[in-house]
Amino acid sequence: ILGEKPPVGTYKIVARVKGKNHQAEFKIKSYTKPKFRVSVGLDGSGLNGSTVKGTVTAAYYFGTPVKEATVNYYVYRTRFYVPWWVDEDYGWYYSESEYRSARQELVTEGNGKLDEDGKFYFQFDTSKEDKDFTYRVEARVKDAGQFMVSGGSAIKTSRGQFHLGLRTPKLIYNRGEKVTVSFYSHDLNHRPVPAGFGFKAILMEPSAPGKDGKITVKESVIYSKQLETGKNGRVTATFKLKKKGHIKLVARGVDKFDNIIRGTTSIWSANPGDKVGYGGEGVEIVADKLSYR
User: Fold this and answer.
1) Are the beta carbons of 143 and 241 closer than 8 angstroms?
2) Segments of the chain assigned E as strands
3) Predicted TM-score of the model (pTM)
4) Which of 218, 212, 69 is nearest to 147 (CA)?
5) For residues 152 and 78, is the Cβ–Cβ distance under 8 A?
6) Between these two residues, 292 and 65, which has the higher pLDDT value?
7) DSSP SS3 for 93
C-alpha cells in the first residue's frame, strides 16, 4: 500500500468494527548506516557488593579507533531469580527473559571522552543485598560529526558464589514412606559448583488459634545430615517419614566469602484421607507434584 519508498513520518491505521473505530500509529524513519561500532566489556566477580569495571570501545568499520568522541553510559538493574522450574522437566518452556522481573531501575550514569585508542574506562559498585541481580550497561558514543551509536552489555551478580536447590519426586507422601531429596548447586550461568552444606527436615506443627486469633508454629527437626555435591553439582539423601504433617526441607551452605546460601522446599506426610495443607480457613489445593505430563 505504501510502496517501496514511503515518505518519512507518522502513520495512523483506523479500522471500523461494528460501528466503533479502533486505531494504532506507527512511524517510518530514514535509515542511516552506522559509521562505527560500539562495544561494552564488563569484568567483575559476580558477587553483590563488589565493583564492576567496564570498558567502552568504539571503532570505525575500517578499523581505525574513534578518538575524542563523547560517551554517556547508563547502568540499569533488574531482579534476577532462579525459579523452581529451572531444574524441572519443563524448564525449556520458559524464555531467558522470564528469569527476570520486568522492573528496571537506573542505578547510576556517567560521561566522558574516548582516548586515543577509542576506549573509555569506568566502574560502578553493586549493592550488597540478599537478592540476585542483572546489571545492564548502555553506552552512547557521539563523534565529532554528532553521529551517535549505542552499545551495551550485562553482568549478573548474586548473594553468593553458588545457588543451592533441592527437589523431591513428589510433594505428598504416606507416613512411613521413604523420601529421596535431590540437591544441586550451580552458579548463575548454570555451571555445576561443588559445595558442602547442611540439610534439615523440619516438622511444622501449627497450634490452635489463641485468644487473639494468632497461630504459632512449632518447628521440630526430624532429620539432619551434612552433605557435599560433587563435580557435577549433585547429591541425594534419603530419610524415612516417621511423623505426619507439613515438613519443610532446608539446605544451608556457606561460600568462601561467608555468604549464607539457602534452598528450601516443602512436602507433606499423611495417612490416606488426612487433610493436607498449610492450615487456615478456606479451600486449599495442594498438588502432589511440581509438574505433570
Assistant:
1) no
2) 9-17, 20-28, 36-43, 51-60, 70-80, 100-113, 119-125, 132-142, 148-157, 163-167, 172-174, 178-186, 196-206, 217-228, 234-240, 245-254, 260-270
3) 0.66
4) 69
5) no
6) 65
7) helix
Q: Can you tell me the distance from the alpha carbon of 134 to that of 131, in angstroms, rounded to the nearest whole number?
A: 10
Average pLDDT, the chain: 86
Q: Round to whole Å and give the CA distance between 71 and 78.
A: 23
- In the numeric block, the cell 502432589 is attached to 288
Which residue type does 4 have?
E
Let me know: does 51 contact 163? Beta carbons within 8 Å: no
At residue 31, what are phi and psi to the nearest 5 degrees? -105, 130
Q: From CA 252, how far away is CA 184, in angstroms rounded? A: 12
Q: How confident is the model over 195-208, as pLDDT tens digits?
A: 999 999 999 988 77
pLDDT in tens, 243-253: 888 999 999 99
Predicted confidence band of residue 62 (pLDDT cuts 50, 70, 90): confident
Report the distance separating Cα 52 and Cα 38, nearest Å.
19
Distance of CA 76 to the CA centre of its chain: 15
169 contacts: CB under 8 Å, gap ≥ 6? 180, 289
pLDDT at 279 (0 to 100): 55
